[in-house]
Structures are given as structure tokens and as C-alpha cells.
Amino acid sequence: MAADYQRVVVLAADLSDHSEKAFNWYVQNFHKPENKVVVVHTPEYNMGNSEMSPSKIEETIQEANAKTEMVKSKFVEKMSENGMNGEFVALDDRNPGHAICKYAERVNATYIVTGTRGLGKFRRTMLGSVSDYILHHAHVPVLVCRLKYLDEKF
């Protein structure tokens, strides 16, 4: 029965160094062949001005979709290189942290892996932090890989 058990690991990803290094750290330190890794990404549609022209809105959407495809390509390739059982999922939500927590709960994830930029308290308060949101709202354990530590190791 235990051989059939498969952990679902949700790994938050974008095009940043902290995301890639968190993935690499997970692979080297936590990954097990029976784990199913779901790399999740929440596209950012920076619409800003509510009076944007339809062509500018379309351009913004195309840019976000292109970035999502880049994230997908990068991490699907990394999973393949490491012989991992996994998939890529783009989440549709304006709040990445909320989307990741909700998705992890829906797929009954064992835990979530995320990188962090290591923002100070003031910047984190002003800019928000996806990893901070996940850490405080997830219903499963969260593994937060700090970039400062990873810079020394990877």
C-alpha cells in the first residue's frame, strides 16, 4: 500500500532566481521519486490604469501569457531533466498567495515549496509577499527557501 502513496508537492514558480534556486534546493534535499510535483504559477496582468486602450490591454495579456509559457517551459524541462513525476499549472487569480494556498488545499498537497526574496519588514508590508502570505494562510506545511541562504549554497 505504501508504494502506491504519492505525495503531492506544490512548488510556487516564476522567472526569478529565488524560484529556480528553491526548486533546485527541493530537488537536492527533499524530493523523493514517489512525489508528484506540481509547479504552479500565477500570471501577473498589470492592468494599472483603468482607462487603458483595448490594444494595450491585449498587449499586457499577451506579455503575461508569454511569461507564463517561459515559466512552464523552464520548469517542465527541469522536472524532465530530474526524472520527476510532475506537471505545470497556471493559476488564474489576482492574488498569487491566495491562489497557491487554495490550489494546494484542493489537490490535498502534502506541502508547499516557495522561494523568498527576503524583503525587510517595511518592504514586505508595502509590497506584499507571496511567501509570507502562503506561510500564514496555507493549510499544509510550507517550506520557504530564503535566497540569501541559497546564494551561498547554489
UniProtKB/TrEMBL annotation:
<dbReference type="InterPro" id="IPR006015">
    <property type="entry name" value="Universal_stress_UspA"/>
</dbReference>
<feature type="domain" description="UspA">
    <location>
        <begin position="8"/>
        <end position="146"/>
    </location>
</feature>
<protein>
    <recommendedName>
        <fullName>UspA domain-containing protein</fullName>
    </recommendedName>
</protein>
<dbReference type="Pfam" id="PF00582">
    <property type="entry name" value="Usp"/>
</dbReference>
<dbReference type="InterPro" id="IPR014729">
    <property type="entry name" value="Rossmann-like_a/b/a_fold"/>
</dbReference>
<dbReference type="InterPro" id="IPR006016">
    <property type="entry name" value="UspA"/>
</dbReference>
